[in-house]
Specification:
Blueprint lengths: L4 E2 L1 H8 L4 H5 L3 E6 L14 E5 L20 E3 L5 E4 L4 E9 L13 E7 L5 E2 L4 E2 L4 E4 L3 E3 L4
Parallel strand pairs: 7-8
Antiparallel strand pairs: 1-7, 2-3, 2-6, 4-11, 5-10, 6-7, 6-9
């Protein structure tokens, strides 16, 4: 079951002058254990397992990069999205952050949450059990705006 949740800041940006590309290009994603918060405005829950960026968080300008939008969808770019697992655990949910990357409760920050599973989830991983010091790579990612 999909459970994408948008922060108030993201929703305000989208009805204003921003789209997903403007909001999240240069940002990053964090993977957590457990269930996601009821709102993307709420503070993070669970244990942080990994931070996903284009150079596993080791580069200067390593924020996520999106491709070209088409047919109501925006894919990740050809760049590698990956991160080193800092704590072993079972991935339960993710939060996509804008460039500010502000954590904690906020109704103004750009954030999107989703659940993680091996099928039927917002983010599908082959294995949700993440091993310490392994590299988690997000091979494909597409964000779609439904027509209705």
């Amino acid at each position: 079951m999909c459970a994408v949740r948008l922060s108030t800041g993201m929703r305000n940006g989208m009805v204003g002058t921003q789209g997903i590309t403007e909001i999240f290009n240069g940002g990053f994603m964090k993977i957590y254990t457990g269930g996601q918060p009821v709102s993307a405005d709420y503070a993070e829950t669970g244990t942080l397992l990994a931070t996903i960026a284009t150079t596993s968080g080791t580069g200067v300008n390593d924020g996520l990069v999106f491709g070209t939008a088409g047919n109501g969808a925006i894919p990740k770019s050809a760049s590698v999205w990956s991160g080193v697992v800092g704590v072993a655990g079972v991935a339960g949910w993710f939060r996509l952050y804008g460039t500010a990357g502000t954590t904690g409760s906020s109704a103004t920050e750009n954030r999107m949450d989703g659940n993680i599973g091996v099928s039927g989830s917002d983010m599908v991983l082959a294995n949700t059990s993440l091993t310490l010091n392994s590299t988690l790579t997000i091979d494909t990612a597409t964000f779609t705006q439904p027509a209705s």
